[in-house]
Amino acid sequence: MRRTAGDAHATALRKLGRKILLCLYHCMASGMPYDDAAAFGYDPAATGAPTLQRQRPLDEMEIAHARDILATPGTTITATARAFGASTQTIYRHVLGRPRAR
Length: 102
Known about the structure:
The structure is a single chain. The chain is an all-alpha fold. Helices cover about 55% and strands about 0% of the residues. It has five helices and no strands. It has helices spanning about 10-30, 35-40, 60-70, 75-85, 90-95. The longest helix is centred in the N-terminal third of the chain and has 22 residues, at about 10-30. The two termini are about 30 Å apart.
């Protein structure tokens, strides 16, 4: 909503972060549990509510094809990720089987 109001990306993120922090502070100070509907006037179960679009993981054929590509000398993980329209983390996790570093 802030972006459609004309704020720059960084400004919109800063304002959203501030709103979330103030909501959480209010919950801690008053002892009330956090609720999206109370904080933002938002009901995620309502029809037409926006949802987070997640990238689908690669299927088995794509994983096998990506392994074949990576077996080629000189091929990078970044180039492979671009070829499949996936992130480098997806290639590390699903193709190479490396767990996420924490």
